[in-house]
Amino acid sequence: MIGRIIETDACVAEGAAYLAALKPEFAAALVQTGKLPLRRKPDGFEPLLNAICGQQISIAAAGAIWMRLQAAGLITAEAIKNASDDEIRACGMSRPKTRYTRALAEHGIDFVGLRDLPDDQVIAKLTEVVGIGQWTAQIYAMFSLGRADVFADGDLALQEAAKVLFNLPERPTEKAMAKMAADWSPWRGVAARLLWAYYRVIKQREGIT
Questions:
Q1: Taking the model in full, what pTM does it have?
Q2: For residue 108, is it within any domain?
Q3: Which residue range forms the structural domain that includes residue 18?
Q4: Domain check: are 67 and 132 in the same one?
Q5: Which of 110, 131, 170, 187 is most buried per CB count within 10 Å?
Q6: Do 90 and 139 have their domain in common?
Q7: Does a structural domain hold residue 2?
Q8: 89: buried, middle or exposed (CB in 10 Å: 19+, 13-18, 0-12)?
């Protein structure tokens, strides 16, 4: 069964109101973060390739590499299949990411079909591809498919934000984060947006850039 799909700012606002009523900590965080972003993206090959590009590097570095991939025309499955590894790497992709990029292009994901699958099946289908782990699949489900109840349990920023917001003794593990987030269903995707926004507040407060 497919749950709520986040399509508009109103959907995000509805989820935020639900979370604020559920947890006073969320209500307090919303005062500091203000309106939460929609962050919807198109689905398909390109945004998933973009997610691979951004794995484990800074936003700025990922943006620079993505611009080079775009300039080289290497943002479609067909273009990747026809390109050499050297051409992909010349855009700034590491050897592992070049392998992941090629695996994505050759896997033949049914992107239209993903729209009709339940969340857990979307994650399972995506993680069949070499180089696509839980985090990347969850990000795609949240922002490209708009799944309202998907959460990135292993995201370090979400874990750190939860630690500070809920006054935890230490940053929760991925397993502990998943257990905590279960209480925020059916709006875990909005909880993720809120915690990411709150993490930015923390960084500004501590003077971290």
A1: 0.90
A2: yes
A3: 9-39+149-206
A4: yes
A5: 187
A6: yes
A7: no
A8: middle
